[in-house]
Design a protein that fits this description.
The chain has 397 residues and is mostly helical. It has a single domain, classed as Na+/H+ antiporter like fold (Up-down Bundle), CATH 1.20.1530. The protein has 17 helices and no strands. 54% of the residues are buried.
Length: 397
C-alpha cells in the first residue's frame, strides 16, 4: 500500500503541476482515487499507514518551523490572533445557526459548528512553501493564525466532547484547557531557546552520518509527544522544534536532512488525508446521500464565508486580506477528526456525517488552486534561502 501511495502521489502531484496547480492538490486527489471511495487499493485505517501519515505531518511542520522567522511572526501576532479568533467564532456561530434553522438538535448543531472551526495548517503551509511565500506578510499571518486556530480548535473539541459524554462545560474547565494549550507553546519556546543550543553542541560529539537529522527528529517527536501529554496538539510541538532549531549552528545540515525525509513522509500524509474521504456517504441516489449534500452545501457556504471574513477582520493589515482569508479555508484532516468523533459518539447519523465530510472535501480542495492564483498575481521578491530549502519538498514534474 505504501508503494501505491507514493506512486500515486508523484503521478498526481506532477499532473497537478503540469496544469498549473499546487502539487498538494494532486496528492489529495491521489488519496481519493487509491482510497476506498474509488480503487480501494489503500485502507487509511491500517495502523501502519496512520503512523506514517502522522510522521509525515510531523516532518512537514518541522520543516515549516525551520523556515519560520519567529520575529516576523511575532510582528504580526495581533493580526494573526484576530484572524484566528474571528476565524473560529464566525464559522462556529454561522454553522450552529444554519443547522439549528434546518431543525437539527442542539448538540448536533454544536458539533457541526465545531467542525467548521478547524484550519488545516499543513495544507496551506505546503502551498505557501511550494510558492516560496512563507516569509511574506500574508504567509506569516496565515501560519500564526493557523497555529492559534489549532489551539482554539483543540479547546472547542475538548469542550464539545465533554458535552457529548454528558459533562457540563464550565468556565473554569474551558479556561484550564486554554491555559494548558497556550502555556505549552510559551514555556517550550522559552526553555527551548536556552536548552537547544546545548543539545546541538552535545550532539556534535557524535561523529556519525545523519546525526543532525536524527537530532531534529528526536526533538520534533519528543515535543509532539509532550504537546499531546500536556493537552495541546502534536503538530504544535513539531512546529516549535523547527523554530528552535532554526537558530542553531546546525541549521543548514538539519534543514537538508529533514527536507530529504520529506520526500518520503510528506506525500504519504496528504494521500492519507485524501483516502479518508468517503464519497459513498454522498450518493445522491440515497436519502442519506441527498441529505448529506444539502447539509454539506449549507456548511460549505457558511464555512467559506466565515474564514474569508476572518481575513478582513484586521482592518489595519496592509497585505492581501483575501489571501489570508483563503489560506484559512481548508479543513483537511482536522475537520475529518471532528466528523469522525461526531459519528463515533452517536451525535451524527450517516447523512450528517456525509454532509460534514463533503464540507471538508470541498474546502480542502478549494483553497490550494485559489491561493496559488492569488499569490502568483502578487509581486514581490521571494527569499532565496527559503526558495532553496523548500525546493526539495516540491513534487518534481
Amino acid at each position: 500500500m505504501i508503494a501505491v501511495m507514493l506512486v500515486a502521489a508523484k503521478l498526481f502531484g506532477a499532473l497537478a503541476q503540469r496544469i498549473g496547480q499546487p502539487a498538494v492538490l494532486g496528492e489529495l486527489i491521489a488519496g481519493v482515487v487509491v482510497g476506498g471511495s474509488v480503487l480501494g487499493l489503500v485502507n487509511p485505517h491500517v495502523e501502519t499507514i496512520e503512523m506514517l501519515s502522522h510522521l509525515g505531518v510531523v516532518v512537514l511542520l518541522l520543516v515549516i518551523g525551520l523556515e519560520t522567522d519567529l520575529k516576523a511572526m511575532m510582528s504580526v501576532g495581533v493580526t494573526a490572533l484576530v484572524v484566528a479568533v474571528v476565524g473560529v467564532a464566525l464559522p462556529f456561530g454561522f454553522g450552529y445557526l444554519a443547522c439549528h434553522l434546518m431543525g437539527l438538535p442542539v448538540l448536533v448543531s454544536i458539533m457541526a459548528g465545531a467542525a467548521l472551526t478547524a484550519t488545516s495548517v499543513g495544507i496551506t503551509a505546503r502551498v505557501l512553501s511550494d510558492l516560496g511565500r512563507l516569509q511574506s506578510p500574508e504567509g506569516q499571518v496565515i501560519l500564526g493564525a493557523a497555529v492559534i486556530d489549532d489551539i482554539l480548535g483543540l479547546v472547542i473539541l475538548t469542550v464539545v466532547a465533554g458535552m457529548v459524554d454528558g459533562g457540563e462545560a464550565t468556565v473554569g474547565g474551558v479556561a484550564w484547557t486554554t491555559a494548558k494549550a497556550f502555556g505549552f507553546l510559551i514555556v517550550t519556546l522559552a526553555v527551548g531557546f536556552l536548552v537547544t543550543p546545548r543539545l546541538v553542541r552535545l550532539a556534535r560529539k557524535v561523529d556519525l552520518p545523519g546525526t543532525p537529522t536524527i537530532l531534529a527528529m528526536i526533538l520534533a517527536l519528543g515535543l509532539a509527544w509532550l504537546a499531546e501529554e500536556s493537552g495541546s496538539a502534536a503538530i504544535i510541538g513539531a512546529f516549535v522544534a523547527g523554530v528552535l532549531l532554526r537558530k542553531t549552528s546546525w541549521f543548514h545540515e538539519i534543514e537538508t536532512g529533514v527536507v530529504t525525509l520529506g520526500h518520503f513522509f510528506v506525500p504519504l500524509f496528504f494521500v492519507h488525508v485524501g483516502a479518508l474521504v468517503e464519497l459513498g456517504a454522498m450518493n445522491p441516489m440515497t436519502e442519506d446521500g441527498r441529505w448529506a449534500i444539502v447539509i454539506g452545501s449549507v456548511l460549505i457556504v457558511v464555512g467559506v464565508f466565515g474564514k474569508l471574513a476572518a481575513g478582513y477582520a484586521p482592518f489595519w493589515f496592509r497585505g492581501n486580506k483575501t489571501v489570508v482569508g483563503v489560506g484559512m479555508i481548508p479543513r483537511g484532516e482536522v475537520g475529518l477528526i471532528f466528523a469522525q468523533i461526531g459519528l463515533q459518539k452517536g451525535v451524527f447519523d450517516s447523512g450528517i456525517f456525509g454532509g460534514v465530510t463533503l464540507m471538508v472535501i470541498f474546502t480542502t480542495f478549494l483553497a490550494p488552486p485559489i491561493l496559488k492564483a492569488l499569490l502568483s498575481k502578487s509581486s514581490g521578491p521571494t527569499d532565496r534561502t527559503e526558495r532553496d530549502a523548500i525546493e526539495n519538498l516540491v513534487t518534481e514534474a
